[in-house]
From TrEMBL:
<protein>
    <submittedName>
        <fullName>Insertion sequence IS21 putative ATP-binding protein IstB</fullName>
    </submittedName>
</protein>
<dbReference type="InterPro" id="IPR027417">
    <property type="entry name" value="P-loop_NTPase"/>
</dbReference>
<dbReference type="GO" id="GO:0006260">
    <property type="term" value="P:DNA replication"/>
</dbReference>
<dbReference type="InterPro" id="IPR002611">
    <property type="entry name" value="IstB_ATP-bd"/>
</dbReference>
<dbReference type="InterPro" id="IPR047661">
    <property type="entry name" value="IstB"/>
</dbReference>
<keyword id="KW-0547">Nucleotide-binding</keyword>
<comment type="similarity">
    <text>Belongs to the IS21/IS1162 putative ATP-binding protein family.</text>
</comment>
<dbReference type="GO" id="GO:0005524">
    <property type="term" value="F:ATP binding"/>
</dbReference>
<dbReference type="InterPro" id="IPR003593">
    <property type="entry name" value="AAA+_ATPase"/>
</dbReference>
<keyword id="KW-0067">ATP-binding</keyword>
<feature type="domain" description="AAA+ ATPase">
    <location>
        <begin position="106"/>
        <end position="238"/>
    </location>
</feature>
<dbReference type="InterPro" id="IPR028350">
    <property type="entry name" value="DNAC/IstB-like"/>
</dbReference>
<dbReference type="Pfam" id="PF01695">
    <property type="entry name" value="IstB_IS21"/>
</dbReference>
Length: 261
């Protein structure tokens, strides 16, 4: 048997075994890693650590990619690209505190309040991405679409199963609550959802309505109070005021479209 055939058999064994053990990053890169170890004159222990670190890094990257994809973010906004200066840094300390994810450990809620365009969804998404980076399961969904899905699950007789599935999600982001008024049925289903997560899992809600106007979302102020009682308890409320980011961009765009002399 030639030397090349022996090497090929060894490579096949290494490749198949690493594939079976699902060590995909080592499997695809072990030859290069061996060369690097030889050039760096690593001993066996150092080489083993290098292999493990390479695989660990790859697994974390794939897990993050899967979690972000599964979350359903409309766009991948981050804390780093949020323009705190636009609102004179009024909320920076609180938002950075929330981005540390301590609220998630305590199963607390966040309610972000403000008019359209001030960055509520950006902040919610940025915190959601931080949660994904920490290995947490996240779901980001439009509030009205989510409530419609609750109604659909109830109609199919699978609401209990659906709520149990949602309980395995560490953080749910409900975006734009307050644009449509709920009927009695949807209000009851939303209350069940809130009660099911109460003190067990975290929730972020963005809304254009201040809390005292939540009677406009539900059938009565009494219903709004019952829901808010569980939402506001153990919650962080951030009210963002100011000019819209989208409005801010219009003058510059207009200038860019003007004829040049």
């Amino acid at each position: 048997m030639s030397v090349n055939s022996v090497i090929n058999e060894e490579d096949q064994y290494i490749y198949k075994t690493l594939k079976r053990f699902k060590l995909v990053d080592i499997r695809d890169n072990y030859k290069d890693l061996i060369e690097e170890a030889s050039e760096e004159k690593l001993d066996y222990r150092q080489f083993l650590i290098k292999l493990l670190q390479y695989e660990d890094k790859g697994k974390k990257e794939r897990t993050l990619e899967r979690l972000i994809k599964g979350a359903g973010f409309k766009c991948e906004n981050t804390i780093e690209n949020y323009d705190f200066a636009f609102h004179s840094y009024r909320h920076k300390g609180k938002i950075m505190e929330l981005a540390s994810l301590d609220f998630l450990k305590r199963s607390e809620n966040i309610i972000l309040i403000g008019p359209p365009g001030v960055g509520k969804s950006h902040v919610a998404t940025a915190i959601g991405i931080k949660a994904c980076e920490a290995g947490k399961r996240v779901l980001c969904v439009n509030a009205n679409e989510f409530i419609d899905e609750l109604s659909n699950q109830a109609y199919q007789g699978s609401l209990k199963k659906f709520l149990k599935k949602l309980s395995r999600i560490d953080l749910i982001l409900l975006d734009e609550l307050g644009y449509l008024k709920m009927d009695k049925e949807k209000e009851s289903l939303f209350f069940q959802f809130i009660r099911h997560r109460y003190e067990k899992n975290a929730l972020i809600i963005t809304t254009n309505l201040p809390l005292e106007r939540w009677g406009e979302i539900f059938t009565s102020q009494l219903a709004a109070t019952a829901i808010l009682d569980r939402l506001v308890h153990h919650s962080h409320i951030v009210s963002i005021t100011g000019e819209s980011y989208r409005v801010k961009g219009k003058p510059r765009e207009a200038r860019n479209n003007e004829p040049r002399s």
